[in-house]
Amino acid sequence: MSSRFFAVSTVRCITLSIAAWAASGATTAQSEPLSIKVLGQPAGSGLIQKNKEQPFFEGLAAKSGMNISLQYVPVDVAGIPDTDGLRVLKSGLFNIVSIRGPQVSRDEPTVMGLDLVGLNPSFEAGKKNTAAYFSTLDKRLQSSFNAKLLGVWPAGPQVIFCKPQIKGLADLKGMKIRVGDQSSANFVAGLGATGVPMPFGEVQQSLARGVVDCAITGPASANSGGWPEATTTVLPLALQLAVNGYAINLTTWNKLSPADQGKLQKAVEGLVADIWSYSQELYDDAMRCNTGANPCNLGKPYKLTAVPVTATDLATVKAALTERSLPVWAKQCNAVNPRCEADWKATIGAGL
Fold it and tell me: Which keywords does this chain's UniProt record carry (predicted)?
């Protein structure tokens, strides 16, 4: 055998070995789990976070078979303002964020189009409207925040709790009312009241001390936050549904294999469907708990007075959508997203 033949054969063997090693290394690298950090709802926000969201994400990797390692942290535990959800997504600090719709709408008012005051008087209306608007919002988040929307869900009907006795919306004139977003602030302003933005954790003490007279939230959240200890009445008139959602950093999404993308989307859709049902269950139970009725299975019993909802008050909320909520929001939203109002009218608006 010539030395030349031996040399060529040796080179070929070395080349093949290097190629095999590289391929093996690439396969090993691809098989490494992708690290996913999830920023969740506040730990003190209620039973949806405790009983649905946190267990879902903590068990997601094992139950779905996805090639990921996952860490879940509630937003208040992380020490991050819940208003920064979209910024966190864009920065990649967390890969998945449980978006608090009313709060992040300050950064992206398009989000508020899901849940203007007067738009979603029931769970059924909410399902229809959020489905109609989903792809529009998803495209906006992808282009502006490098985030893909995975699903949306309601915390539940937002109703009014008051320390003074009231009989209806007309009695709110001149009062200070804690609000969760700009749409509810605009609504109470139309009633002659003053909207006061305030973190959820500060509301109970503010009601007790008279800093605010009334406050808006869902019955289950109010129950978990002890609001009935500082109030006398609840007006169970749904102003909004407090629509939240899940979104993933788009760069992270693109790192997932097509199979894992499908598994994640399917899993989140299952969680979202579960929360829609659970939210209604919580609302019904919490209204009974807050007013001393039975059965009260999930909350703490109180004895608030439930104010009967009148046809006049229902009409006031319904009219607020076209007379106040939509025009004010559209002006603000169009300023940052020129297609905002047109897209809303072509989707949700077309079905009204």
Answer: Signal
